[in-house]
């Protein structure tokens, strides 16, 4: 699962929930600085990446076996 802004409160919540729910789902989280990437790693994200320095899409695709898309469509 990809958490954009993984060092923020919602991102940290998502990463921690994944750890408690399943060990089979990899957590990938992005952050805007090296310091915030450290925060993401401290919250047990499998992959931490900088959206300012890396190609987020390629990094995510290289880190996962299967891609499932979830879209929020307002009704």
UniProtKB/TrEMBL annotation:
Xref: InterPro entries: NAD(P)-bd_dom_sf
SUPFAM superfamilies: NAD(P)-binding Rossmann-fold domains (SSF51735)
Gene3D superfamilies: NAD(P)-binding Rossmann-like Domain (3.40.50.720)
Protein's recorded name: Alcohol dehydrogenase-like C-terminal domain-containing protein
Organism: Phanerochaete carnosa (strain HHB-10118-sp)
């Amino acid at each position: 699962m990809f958490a954009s802004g993984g060092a923020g409160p919602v991102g940290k919540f998502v990463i921690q929930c994944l750890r408690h729910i399943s060990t089979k789902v990899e957590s990938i989280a992005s952050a805007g600085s090296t310091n915030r990437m450290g925060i993401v790693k401290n919250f047990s994200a499998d992959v931490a990446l900088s959206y300012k320095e890396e190609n987020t899409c390629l990094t995510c695709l290289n880190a996962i076996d299967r891609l499932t898309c979830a879209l929020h469509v307002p009704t």
